[in-house]
Design goal:
There is one protein chain. The chain is mostly helical. It has one domain: di-copper center containing domain from catechol oxidase, CATH 1.10.1280. The protein is 39% helix and 10% strand. The strands form 4 sheets. A two-stranded parallel sheet has the order 1-8. It has a two-stranded antiparallel sheet with strand order 2-3. Strands 4-5 form a two-stranded antiparallel ribbon. Helix 1 packs across helix 3, helix 3 crosses helix 8 and helix 7 packs antiparallel against helix 8. The chain is globular. The two termini are 23 Å apart.
Amino acid sequence: MSIIIRQNIENYTAEELAALRAGYTAMQAISDDRGFNIIAGYHGVPMQFCYHHEDELMFFPWHRGYLLAFESRLRDIDATLSVPYWDWTSPASQQVGVPTAFSAQQLPDGSRNPLASSLINVASTRPPVRRQTARFPGDPQGLPQAADVDSTLSESDFGKFSNLIQDMHDGIHGWTGGQKGNVPGDMALVPWAAYDPIFFSHHCMIDRLWFRWQQIHGINNIPQSLLNRPLRGFDNLSVASVVDTTQLGYRYASDEITVEDHT
């Protein structure tokens, strides 16, 4: 099995970024269940598959399965692609906040940047919703720093670690969505967050932190009672099936990461 290496969006070359944007553009244009709009709807409206604090221990496994499903659809369009992660602790993010790859509204050729927004098209709500996503990020100094993450990674209990990261994750959702006047950004709204393309790179970072934690504390350091639980919305996946990223065919770039292996 070939291993996909998920990369930091900041390290993409111009060619890699152009290919990623082409993939997202194509995915956003598909109207059936292979398309961006449908898979985005798994998280909040209309499918409501995510657990959203309903079951804290399912936070990491469910979102790992969700990312796999999204990435699979992206790779159906271009097999060279993978979901990039947004390292909101990086020096660049601490300076500018949302990476330029996601914040630029238009590309040099004048076309729309598919990483900046996407169309929410949900006919089942009353009234139906059809609009572009919006984002009003806060001051970059409000983002977590590397030291915050490093401290959290030292927590060896899976449940406690999951809660700490979920709290951090919630804060970044609110920071990224933000608010303009009385209008909140979509990343701050559970029903609509996954329609913002940056959602998947934010959660790629979250998954990467679980991956790093597993490198330190072991991939099987998880309550055994969770292993047989199915991932809601994904009939072929259980918690046990998403524990080992090697078996799933991916890992994360470690260009700036050094962790000791205590397994």
